[in-house]
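As described in the Methods, two query proteins were run sequentially through the folding procedure within a single session, without resetting any intermediate state between them. The first query and its resulting structure tokens are shown here.
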Amino acid sequence: MWRYLAGSLAALLMVAAGWLVFTGRARTEPVLPPAPQLTSDNAAVPARDEAPVPEASARTREEKRFDRYDKDRNGQIAAEEYLTARRKAFAKLDTNADGRLTFEEWAVKTTTKFATADRDKSGTMDRTEFATTAVKRKPKPKCVCAPPAAEDGN
């Protein structure tokens, strides 16, 4: 019987503590810097003696992509401009420059990877050799966050 009474009392105390935490008053200190003041001509004046922050251009991702393809900057992408990147990739693969891509030229990266992994030159890979062909993934960068501002408790 005492267990039920103690459990009920503990549950009531937890509900009361939660209610106090969620209905408590938040700090009234501003977390963000003050907003720029507007003058009579509606131009923003930076607060204090801070320099104004430069604004980024309003170009979208599609506009940037379009500009990468539009080499002559005439506002239109010709077929030759569109295929330039593919021609360069083809030229890298066409090692003998005959204008034809053989299977060996196309698969050169894979065959080189296989030959490098096959350490005993047996023409086959065992599990250990195959493990060396795994893609090397870059580790996720650790968060380089600014240390929290010290509160003076006043």
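Immediately afterward, the second query was submitted; its sequence and tokens are:
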Amino acid sequence: MNIYFIIILVSLIVSWVLGVLSNLLTLRHMESTLPPELADIYDAKTYAQSQDYARSTMRFSTVNDTVSTLLIIVFFVLGGFNWVDGLVRSCSLPPIIAGLTYIGLLGVGSFVVGLPFELYETFVLENRFGFNTTTVGTFILDRVKGGVLTVFLGGVLIAGVLYFIQQTGTWAWVWCWTLTTFLSLGLTYVAPTWILPLFNSFKPLEAGELRDALEHFAKTADFELTGIFVMDGSKRSTKGNAFFTGFGKRKRIALFDTLIKTQSPEEIVAVLAHEVGHAKRGHIRKGLLSSVLKTGVIFYLMSIFITSPGLFAAFGMEHMSLYAGLVFFFLLYAPLSLVLAVVSNLISRKHEFEADAFAAESTGNPASMISALKKLSANNLSNLTPHSLTVWLEYSHPPVLERVRALSRFMK
């Protein structure tokens, strides 16, 4: 039996089993009694609704994962990758164009398979719990815009990678690494101005108590902001959030309009302080460095396996090609990707605790950070008692109950 075939098949099954097991354990781990730390925000009805939402989302994800895993296994085992390659080869395209076509067809197939689940999640599941505000027109436009960006930006990256693999020999992985790093940094730099506004409107926060408070904190914390913007998050969902975009001298904060409606100025200042904490504690710099190094490792490993005859035999390929090898490598890489994701989530959760601590210390008002987290949790119907396996596998942020308990230590 082909070792690559075994690794890929087993990794697909193990990933599915872990997801199902995680959901089952979390379902059993749910507590009927509301944790006392959140009794001031949650009432019995809201708590019951949050558990109902958790059950519904877990059932949905289990069905979604099961169907998608079965389809990719069937496609893999029955030689679907070779069949698509035959279609592309029949067109007698130049190598790079053939590669873009091959990967594009697989991407379209993946999109078509996932579309019914996206529609159900948006217009049925999220609608049932009062979160969805997306119109059919917005949904379609989002997919069209996202598709155009993927074709353009993804096409440039894939074409560049295929070109360097063909032309630069042993050091191709270094060139691919360099190209990906520059494109990633460039996108991060231009996203606030050119990409994000394609999907949402960003308006400067009006003068007033909130803006004064945010600017005062940024100045006190010696943190330069180039702008404070309000994003029309309510265009798609009632859930609230806030995030930083850009880097260097183009740092700006975006506040969802839904966040502003539900949080007090003191609580929003605490949210800003948390985000500033990520910068002050070096989390952004460390995350960027980690991402760059991980990309380098990926391309180095790719250079080892991308032309392996055994890898192509595992997929029943009649011909070897760099573009197919690129796809197959990322399926082979899946087990390592899962391990790295677990480690990344572990580090991320540690960073969230540190950013919470910075917010509590820098504002001198841990109660506002606690109340902000509680309100966000209640408004988003967060699961208060996820199982540790679910947290380990999926959570980049600690459960809100753990964050509240950690912040409580700063209360005088």
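The first strand starts at residue 202 and ends at 204. We note this only descriptively and draw no conclusion about the first query from it.
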